[in-house]
Amino acid sequence: MQEDPPVLLNRLSATRYRGNNLTLQNPHFADPVWHSPKNSRAGISQRHLPYSKFEPSLQRRISLTTTPNPQVSSSMSTFSTPFTLNLSSSNKREKLPDESDDDDEPHSSRPKIDITALPWSSRTSSVQLSPELEKTRVILENFSRNPKLVKASILSQPDCPPFSSEDWENLIAGKPTNLTTSSRVSTLLRSNEKRKSLATSSLNLAPKPRVKPYLAMATGSSLGTAILIIAAIFAFPHRISELNAYRTHISQLFSCTPSSSHSRVINYDKAACLRVSQTRRYLLSSFGNFNNLNIRWIQAPSWGGNNRFSSTSGVGKSRRDTCHRWNKKRCPNTASACRYAHVCGKCRSNGHVKSNCKKSESNKD
């Protein structure tokens, strides 16, 4: 019984044979083909051959003469016909019929866009950009050519400010960054939540003072604004005066707005950044262009849809929740400043609290 040539070659390292010569040609190249008059097979992969790691300089013919092994039967130790490896083909990919040797340009499956054929390319714009806006536009256009390379280059800098990868992508693309995300604020404050003592190796479980929600909201937004400005100045150094002026503007709005209405300042901040990112003709320091946003988000009554940008409110609530502290006569805010409705918890009347409501008594009668 004659065994297949690949099996015999794999046994050459452990078994010695005597028979016809086995001739190999160009063992460096892949995909060898066996040629045999009786049993013609093709497709033997080079990775299964023990000599697949020969150096490219070995171009000589190799002749293997085997000697018998007493532990192997004679039927397995002889070849009926000499086998020759045809390895003359190269590993290089064959050229397509339409390819030429002189074509050195990289091939792309996506056709190129003719910029001159775009309808707005030949139109003269009536908007005259300031030097700062024009420089920002040129930088963003350059970033858009390869955003991944730009982000990798920024992150490789030794003085790169701490900023998440997603926020860097938004900044490079000219998109607004969410300053009040819980992930960024929790990342900044997480180190103070649980402190470990090196001396006793025990957790500090001392109770922490309770922080009011609106205070934590304002603090988180201020930290997010500061981090964003540092990162933006790193990517756009020419915008340092613009960003510092905008940070002062937002800080002043926080200081002159009641603490319970700090969410309005945050919504105004988001709307202003969104408008600047959607167009290329506004500076963040041009506060006059945001007057309508100021009226919409800061000066509007509290019952308006000021929670449009809130992550928990969705489209905005048409009916506010009842203020439980007002029903217990402990709410320090006025009806216009409180985010909850100063109405009765039973009949939603603003003339009395829940304990003085007569609705339940009338139902009993």
UniProtKB/TrEMBL annotation:
In residue numbers, the zinc fingers (C3H1-type) are 317-345
What InterPro entries does the database record attribute to this sequence?
Znf_CCCH
Q: Where is the signal peptide?
A: none
Every C3H1-type domain range: 317-345
Molecular function per GO: zinc ion binding
For the region Disordered, give the residue spans: 66-117
Q: Which PROSITE patterns match?
A: ZF_C3H1 (PS50103)
Query: What keywords were assigned to this record?
Result: Membrane, Metal-binding, Transmembrane, Transmembrane helix, Zinc, Zinc-finger
Ranges that cross the membrane: 214-236
Q: Which domain of life is it from?
A: Eukaryota
Q: Where is the composition biased (Low complexity)?
A: 73-84
- Name of the molecule in the record: C3H1-type domain-containing protein
